[in-house]
Design brief:
Layout: H1 2-17, H2 24-32, H3 37-53, H4 61-82, H5 93-99, H6 104-120, H7 133-144, H8 155-160, H9 170-185, E1 189-197, E2 209-215, E3 220-224, E4 227-236, E5 240-245, E6 253-257, E7 262-265, E8 271-275
Antiparallel strand pairs: 1-2, 2-3, 3-4, 4-5, 5-6, 6-7, 7-8
């Protein structure tokens, strides 16, 4: 019976996302209709079940990415409607929204919600390590596939670089990220500039690779599996070019040497990773 329930729920979610639009007004209406604490708790439970049984079992990258932002938007609307009164200290869902997402811009748009969770306290203080280890890891992995594990000394500086967009509310900012994600999913690769093995931890090659790719809109992107992020040319040197991922928060950049070697460099111009060529 439980499997039938999740199958039906999956069909409904995919149907709502299949038209390149998240029904945000519908979500606002259903959340505003929650009148009691038990109804709000049940809604949180439904979102948690979607995270564990649908999102983590997605059949494609596109399905995963769409469902992930959809979940973030519902969580955000709960906070925008009820502030922190709807959130309890043992609620893992907003933290999982960050960990189960590979769109760095979505995590940045969602950051005001993380700050509200921190204000309430509770499980966010220890989930995945002492705050903000798990949350910053989500940003560094989603933008650069780079792990901040055991680099606590960097946390204060990196936290200070995260800027909150207060020009509109978080749910609308997430909608903008979703719409841009859909646009990027329509692009096709036209030329591979280079390919390297991933290194989430220095000197440890992963079993996957990433590429710098020119796409059908004429721009350069970093492509990891099926996901792409736009690269902006920052500087041209005699022996290399400096690229930065669009809208990344930390001030990190790639240096692509004329001989094809690639380096990831942090905001202090310290080398984080020397990547190995992958063909």
């Amino acid at each position: 019976m439980r499997n039938i329930y999740f199958t039906i729920l999956l069909i409904l979610i995919n149907t709502s996302l299949s038209y390149s639009q998240i029904p945000i007004e519908k979500y606002k209406a259903e959340i505003e209709a929650l009148k009691t604490e038990s109804e709000i708790d049940a809604y949180w439970k439904k979102l948690y079940d979607i995270d564990q049984n649908i999102l983590l079992n997605s059949r494609s990258t596109k399905e995963f990415d769409s469902t992930s932002i959809d979940q973030m938007i519902k969580t955000t609307i709960l906070f925008e409607t009820y502030e922190t009164s709807a959130y309890k200290q043992d609620n893992q869902l907003p933290i999982l929204n960050v960990g189960h997402n590979w769109n760095g811009e979505a995590i940045l748009a969602f950051w005001p919600i993380i700050l509200k969770c921190k204000e309430v306290g509770g499980i966010i203080e220890i989930f995945g390590g002492t705050y903000p280890a798990y949350e910053l890891e989500g940003i560094s992995l989603s933008f650069y596939r780079y792990s901040l594990f055991n680099q606590e000394s960097k946390y204060p500086s990196l936290l200070s670089k995260i800027k909150i967009d207060s020009s509109s509310n978080a749910s609308l900012n997430l909608m903008k990220v979703f719409e841009n994600q859909k646009r990027l999913q329509q692009l096709k690769p036209t030329k591979i500039i280079g390919k390297w093995f991933g290194q989430e931890i220095k000197n440890t090659n992963e079993d996957w690779s990433f590429e710098f790719v020119e796409m059908s809109d004429g721009n350069l992107y970093v492509k990891t599996k099926e996901r792409i992020q736009k690269l902006n040319l920052v500087e041209t040197k005699s022996e290399s070019k400096i690229y930065r991922i669009e809208n990344e928060p930390f001030g990190w950049h790639y240096e692509l040497k004329n001989n094809g070697f690639l380096i990831l460099i942090d905001e202090n111009n310290e080398v984080l990773i020397n990547y190995s060529k992958a063909g």
